[in-house]
Every structure is written in structure tokens, then in C-alpha cells.
């Protein structure tokens, strides 16, 4: 059961776009989309995807490659990018939900959503949140372990968890669409901040 529990911990990497289960081309039903949205929301909340994405951006942002005319513009651009990522996090969640809806069967998504909304599913999500936050994780009680074992006998849930552990392939078009969504707002926010900085610079240089 421990392996199954921490298979959920892969959700952060899954939603970050690791290769895995390819998306299906069949039409997605309203029920499948509803359940995929519920699953994605539960994972985003448990993993704190906003912090994961921001930490990744902060860790990979290379200011030395930004040829800005003002030294203060590099941090201004970084701040603008991070702020827009935060603002558009619901859009990212919705995008991943649509991808998940196309990667699982309707019955698998129904089983996954029901499990994550159940008391034992919520307990596992709280454990995942604590683990990804660096907090001490309370072990499952014998009663909770029995409940989890019972839930794992559901073949649809078993298939959902198996796919989940292997990862979810995020099409490049999804990433491109998300970047296209936020980048104009990043430039607008950065431009406003840079313009304000130039106004302050001019004011401080005035006799």
C-alpha cells in the first residue's frame, strides 16, 4: 500500500509534463471532463502546484542571458513572469484537466474522482501535501490501511492508479498555448514596471 500511496506523489511530476500515458483522440464526455477536473483540482491543491511551478521557474531563470539596458530590469521581468504564473494558475489547472480527460476512460476517471473525494482519498491527499511541504507525515492507521486495501480491489480504480503512476503526456501544443496565454501579460506587467522605474530614475536625476 505504501507504494500505491506514494504513487500519488508522482502527481506533481505528472502534471509538470513528464512523458507517459498518451492522450486518446476519442471525444471526451461531459462526465469525463467533470471527473478529470475534480481529480486535477485535488492534486493541484495537495501538491501545491503553484509553489512547484514557481520554484522551478526561480531555479531555472538565467538572468545572465537577459540583455537588458537597465540592471534593475532583469528582476522586474522575473517578478512579472512569476506574478502572471500565479494569476494564470487556474488556467493551467484547467488545461491539465482537459488533457487528463483525454487520457483516461470515463469509468477510470469516475473511480479516481470518487476515491480522492472519499475519506481515505482525502487522507492520502493530506499526507501527500504534508510530504511535499517537508512536514512530518502521519502513517496510516490499521483501519485506514484496511480501507485502502478494500478500495484497491476496484479494477477501475486500479487501472486509474496504474496509469497515474506511469505519468501523463502533456502535448507540446498545451504548453505552447499556455505560454502564449501568459507571455503577453508578462510583457505588459513588465513594461508598466519598467516604465515606472524609468520615471523614478529620471526624477532622481533631475537637478
Topology at a glance:
Elements: H1 2-7, H2 11-15, H3 30-47, H4 49-60, H5 73-87, H6 89-101, H7 106-117, H8 119-132, H9 142-151, H10 155-166, H11 172-205
Helix pairs in contact: 3-4, 3-6, 3-7, 3-8, 4-5, 5-11, 7-8, 7-10
Description:
This protein is mostly helical and 207 residues long. 22% of the residues are buried. Helices cover 73% and strands 0% of the residues. The longest helix has 34 residues, at 172-205. The N and C termini lie far apart (72 Å). It has helices at residues 2-7, 11-15, 30-47, 49-60, 73-87, 89-101, 106-117, 119-132, 142-151, 155-166, 172-205.
H-E string:
HHHHHHHHHHH
Range of helix content = over 70%
Instruction: Provide the residue-averaged pLDDT.
Output: 79
Radius of gyration: 21 Å
Please state roughly what percent of the residues sit in beta strands, choosing from under 5%, 5-15%, 15-25%, 25-35%, 35-45% or over 45%. Answer: under 5%
Q: How many β-strand stretches?
A: 0
Please report the distance between the alpha carbons of the first and last residues.
Answer: 72 Å
pLDDT < 50 runs, ≥5 residues = 1-21
Query: What is the overall number of helices?
Result: 11
Largest sheet: none
**Category by helix and strand content:** mainly alpha
**Silhouette:** elongated
Amino acid at each position: 500500500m505504501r507504494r500505491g500511496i506514494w504513487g500519488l506523489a508522482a502527481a506533481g511530476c505528472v502534471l509538470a509534463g513528464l512523458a507517459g500515458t498518451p492522450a486518446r483522440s476519442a471525444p471526451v464526455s461531459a462526465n469525463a471532463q467533470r471527473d478529470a477536473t475534480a481529480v486535477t483540482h485535488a492534486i493541484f491543491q495537495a501538491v501545491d502546484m503553484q509553489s512547484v511551478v514557481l520554484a522551478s521557474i526561480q531555479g531555472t531563470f538565467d538572468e545572465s542571458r537577459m540583455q537588458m539596458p537597465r540592471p534593475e530590469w532583469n528582476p522586474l521581468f522575473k517578478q512579472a513572469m512569476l506574478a502572471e504564473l500565479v494569476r494564470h494558475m487556474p488556467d493551467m489547472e484547467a488545461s491539465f484537466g482537459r488533457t487528463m480527460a483525454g487520457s483516461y476512460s470515463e469509468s477510470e476517471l469516475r473511480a479516481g474522482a470518487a476515491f480522492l473525494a472519499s475519506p481515505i482519498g482525502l487522507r492520502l491527499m493530506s499526507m501527500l501535501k504534508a510530504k511535499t511541504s517537508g512536514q512530518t507525515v502521519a502513517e496510516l492507521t490499521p483501519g485506514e490501511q484496511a480501507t485502502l486495501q478494500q478500495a484497491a480491489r476496484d479494477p477501475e480504480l486500479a487501472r486509474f492508479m496504474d496509469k497515474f503512476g506511469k505519468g501523463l503526456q502533456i502535448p507540446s501544443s498545451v504548453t505552447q498555448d499556455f505560454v502564449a496565454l501568459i507571455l503577453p501579460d508578462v510583457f505588459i506587467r513588465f513594461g508598466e514596471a519598467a516604465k515606472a522605474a524609468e520615471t523614478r530614475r529620471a526624477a532622481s536625476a533631475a537637478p
